[in-house]
Write a structure and sequence with these properties.
There is one protein chain. The protein has one domain. It has eight helices and 14 strands. The strands form five sheets. A five-stranded mixed sheet has the order 1-5-12-13-14, covered by helices on one side. A three-stranded antiparallel sheet has the order 4-10-6, with no helix packed on it. A two-stranded antiparallel ribbon has the order 2-11. The radius of gyration is 23 Å and the shape is elongated.
Length: 265
């Protein structure tokens, strides 16, 4: 049995993540009228939140099952490749299984705690999202080119209520990258209206993810964006190396939908 180096395994996992990345041409990020928002577009850095900072208390809490018997089987089957007999491997596993399970659970919790998430949507005209994430339509919605880094690795969130726990050990056998998906990209079906995509990292204390200024394709101003904040955004845009499309959102009171008017292109 061939043994792979850590570099080879990491490269394989990276390729699997990229193969599953499926963002739309533009990813939209709703932002409040705050200094943080100004910093994000002027310094070209995305703030990556922890699960505790997101508004859903169920974040990163999809149920899992640890099939220890399956892990035992794998351990014994792979033992000869490391010069250990199946009998000896069986004995070692049984004597350390409680300790190993404790280590796995601690690693699982540490991974969740270190995970950082940047949230986007494929929809720039959701009344609810403007209300929830752009301070009742007072903020902006930034559209990013998904062919640029880090947007090109964005994964679509799966909206699936927890009927069946996720088999962690089974994923180790088939595709370990599915574990990361289960931690960061699984939400209740109740959130499906958001049509969310996510860029996730496991970089510990690193909270700001840089991006190319050219990635900002458009900026939408909310129905209630006040002139002072709008002028601050426009001042930042003046210093961009390119001119993104600027759009003013409006209200169609007859149909109860948001409208858009291009103010600069």
């Amino acid at each position: 049995m061939k043994r792979f180096s850590r570099e080879e395994l990491e490269a394989e996992m990276a390729l699997r993540f990229l193969a599953r990345a499926n963002p739309p041409p533009i990813l939209f990020r709703y932002r409040r009228p705050s200094d943080w928002t100004i910093d994000e577009i002027s310094k070209h850095e995305l703030y990556a939140a922890t699960s505790q900072e997101l508004n859903d208390p169920f974040e990163c809490h999809a149920p899992v099952v640890w099939n220890i018997e399956s892990l035992r089987k794998q351990f014994i089957q792979n033992a000869p490749a490391f010069g250990v007999s199946p009998e000896k491997a069986s004995e070692e596993f049984d004597s350390t299984s409680d300790w190993a399970k404790k280590q796995l659970l601690e690693k699982w919790e540490a991974t969740k705690a270190q995970t950082r998430i940047v949230c986007f949507s494929s929809k720039p005209d959701s009344i609810r999202m403007w209300s929830y994430y752009a301070q009742a339509h007072e903020g902006i919605c930034v559209g990013y080119d998904s062919t640029s880094r880090p947007f090109w690795v964005a994964q679509k969130v799966k909206y699936q209520n927890s009927d069946n726990p996720f088999d962690v050990i089974g994923a180790f056998e088939t595709d370990p990258t599915l574990i990361a998906d289960n931690i960061t990209c699984r939400k209740s079906a109740e959130w499906e209206f958001e049509q969310e995509y996510r860029v996730a990292s496991n970089l510990g204390d690193i909270r700001l993810i840089p991006f190319d200024a050219f990635a900002i394709k458009e900026i939408r101003f909310g129905v209630r964006t006040n002139p002072e904040f709008k002028n601050r955004v426009l001042e930042v845009v003046k210093h961009f190396p390119h001119s993104p499309t600027l759009i003013q959102m409006g209200c169609d009171f007859d149909r109860f939908i948001l409208t858009e008017s291009v103010i600069y292109q």
